[in-house]
Amino acid sequence: MKYSIILPTYNERENLPIIFYLLNKTLTEYKLHYEVVVVDDSSPDNTFEVAQSLQDVFGKECVKIVSREGKLGLGSAYSAGLKVSTGDRIILMDADLSHHPKFIPLMIDVMDKSHVDIVSGTRYRKGGGVAGWDFKRKLISTGANFLASFLLNPGASDLTGSFRLYERRAIEKILPKVRSKGYAFQMEILVHAKKENIFIGEVPITFVDRIYGESKLGSNEIIMYIKGLLQLLFTT
Predict the structure, then answer these.
(1) Is beta strand 206-208 parallel, antiparallel or unpaired with respect to 129-131?
(2) 0.70 exceeded by the pTM?
(3) Looking at residue 175, what DSSP letter applies?
(4) Alpha carbons 228 and 187: distance in angstroms, whole number
(5) Which of 76, 88, 122, 186 has the lowest CB atom count within 10 Å?
(6) Which distant-in-sequence residues (6+ apart) come within 8 Å of 175 by Cβ?
(7) Within 10 Å of residue 168's Cβ, how many Cβ atoms?
């Protein structure tokens, strides 16, 4: 069994070596066969060069790089990474240290024992949570998640989280159907999963706010989320 970890990056030069170290440490400890696919959208901070340095050290079989011209979005980054990946299972996660690789073995255990097609890391079940957010950010996130759960009912507790493990056949079936951008993208994946009778498991995780770099959440992302939510409500 081989695992492909897809890491979309934009200005993550400080975070990329650390997340790779944590991934390598965790997956090696559990004797898991893996590759990391870095999808970089022309980061001006030279994230691409950092990825190349990792590739020089660990080899092209372990570190694959997709370099794209311009900031093209999360959904297309996943698609680009999926095309060059060779894993039987796909892990999607953030490169900014918000998602700790220590939860990956727990996700694998749930997938193996429950025979689900997707395992989602959740902040909103007992044992999960958030560290480093102020009250306003927590309120926005909790409110957005509650609203989406109430309106769409996709059968998962964390609709906007991006830390997930997929059977390859599941993500290959769902991804071409997704049209949303930004935070609504994660939500739409679960909506299509429910429609396709693709089963979802969950693992409580602690989401940690980034230490290096700037958060990509802004007013534009919130507006895109609301538009995406309404579109999903009336079209799915």
Answers:
(1) parallel
(2) yes
(3) G
(4) 9
(5) 88
(6) 75, 78, 79, 82, 189
(7) 17
- Summarised one tens digit per residue, pLDDT across range 31-56 is 999 999 999 999 999 999 999 999 99
d(CA 66, CA 90): 16
Q: Judge contact between 140 and 222, C-beta under 8 A.
A: yes
- 150 contacts 197 by C-beta, under 8 angstroms: no
Angle between helices 15-29 and 104-114 (to 10 degrees): 50
Work out the angle between the directed axes of helices 184-195 and 219-235 (0-180°, nearest 10): 20
Local structure of residue 103 (DSSP, 8 states) = G
Give 204's strand partners. 122
Range with top average pLDDT, 65-74, 109-118, 129-138: 109-118
Task: Please name the residue that has the structure tokens 């020089």.
Answer: 56
The SS3 of residue 98 is coil
pLDDT in tens, 155-172: 888 988 899 999 999 999
Helical segments of the chain, H only: 15-29, 47-58, 74-84, 104-114, 135-152, 168-174, 184-195, 219-235
According to DSSP, the β-strands at 118-122 and 164-167 are antiparallel
173: amino acid identity, one letter: K
